[in-house]
């Protein structure tokens, strides 16, 4: 959705992106193998791209950012606060950690520490209240000890990520890890079970019943009986399956919550994306007074 062009940022965000919106697209995902690394080969940064792109997002449309590893986002935390606070950008970011042990991360050849991951999460949670941080962990990497794994469990327990992808280690052919002695499969399965049990006991939507939210409806739910809408924080809200709702924004009142979803009653159709009734973020002043201005 972007190309190089003359100008202060060297980016033409209208190429592709504008066409998407003209063709009726309501939700754009900007993603890659590591979104945060964008532009390092052409002398620009991800924030450069995003500051340009938000200018062309029409009312009633939303942008969702893809996965970024901690090293590539640490240099732009203040910019990311401004961007994720924009009313037409979901306050959502997928930042994989993989393990909470620095020893294991080093053995995995990861270019970050758990402390740097925590810094990203803590900073975004403090400055973008309600932001959704999704992450990944790998259970049973060959050099992972029980003590290492306990650190990962403690991380899950402390941060209570609303979206957590739990994976068992699987060696990729030709990688250094493929030549390492593997942990017995039954131990890996047990670690995966233990991590899953902690995650399943956490309910991120607890206390949401009664809140008023604005959601953008974009897809059919897996149960086939509802449509799926997402609020500002990319939290999943199941709405009645009414064809007139697809591609529109709705003001809804939350009536029920589960582990991975909320249900609602519709209060208004065709409303603009608004923040939840309980939301308060003093950093929104960055839109008009920050180092880089965004067009709302």
Q: Radius of gyration over alpha carbons?
A: 20 Å
Largest sheet: 5 strands, mixed, barrel
Category by helix and strand content: alpha/beta
Instruction: Return the average pLDDT rounded to an integer.
Output: 88
Question: What spatial form do the alpha-carbon principal axes imply?
Answer: globular
Give the H and E element order.
EEHEHEHEHHEHEHEEEEEH
Could you tell me how far the N terminus lies from the C terminus, measured between alpha carbons in angstroms?
20 Å
**Quaternary structure state of the chains depicted:** single chain
User: Helix count?
Assistant: 8
Number of strands: 12
Low-confidence stretches: 1-10, 282-296
The helix content is 25-40%
Beta percentage is 15-25%
Textual characterization of the structure:
With 296 residues, this protein is α/β, with parallel strands linked by helices. The protein is 26% helix and 22% strand. The protein is built from eight helices and twelve strands. The chain has helices at residues 17-22, 46-53, 77-84, 102-107, 114-127, 146-159, 185-200, 286-289, and strands spanning 3-4, 11-12, 27-30, 62-65, 92-94, 132-139, 163-168, 212-220, 226-230, 236-240, 249-257, 262-269. Strands 8-9-10-12-11 form a five-stranded mixed β-barrel. Helix 6 packs parallel to helix 7.
């Amino acid at each position: 959705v972007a190309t190089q062009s003359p100008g202060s940022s060297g980016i033409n965000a209208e190429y592709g992106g504008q066409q998407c919106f003209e063709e009726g697209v309501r939700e754009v995902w900007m993603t890659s193998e590591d979104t945060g690394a964008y532009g390092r080969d052409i002398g620009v940064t991800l924030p450069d791209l995003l500051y340009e792109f938000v200018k062309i997002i029409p009312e009633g449309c939303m942008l969702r950012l893809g996965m970024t590893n901690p090293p590539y986002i640490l240099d732009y935390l203040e910019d990311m606060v401004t961007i994720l606070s924009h009313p037409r950008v979901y306050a959502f970011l997928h930042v994989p950690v993989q393990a909470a042990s620095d020893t294991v991360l080093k053995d995995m050849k990861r270019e970050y520490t758990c402390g740097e991951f925590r810094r990203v999460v803590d900073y975004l949670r403090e400055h973008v209240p309600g932001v959704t941080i999704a992450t990944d962990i790998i259970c049973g990497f060959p050099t992972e000890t029980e003590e290492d794994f306990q650190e990962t469990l403690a991380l899950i327990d402390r941060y209570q990520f609303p979206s957590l992808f739990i994976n068992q280690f699987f060696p990729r052919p030709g990688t250094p890890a493929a030549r390492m002695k593997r942990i017995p499969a039954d131990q890996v399965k047990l670690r995966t079970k233990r991590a899953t049990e902690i995650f399943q006991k956490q309910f991120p939507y607890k206390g949401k019943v009664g809140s008023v939210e604005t959601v953008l409806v974009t897809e059919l739910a897996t149960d086939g009986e509802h449509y799926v809408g997402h609020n500002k924080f990319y939290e999943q809200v199941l709405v009645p399956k009414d064809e007139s709702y697809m591609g529109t924004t709705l003001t809804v009142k939350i009536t029920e919550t589960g582990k991975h979803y909320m249900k609602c009653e519709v209060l208004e159709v065709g409303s603009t994306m608004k923040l939840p009734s309980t939301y308060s973020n003093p950093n929104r002043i960055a839109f008009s007074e920050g180092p880089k201005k965004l067009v709302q």
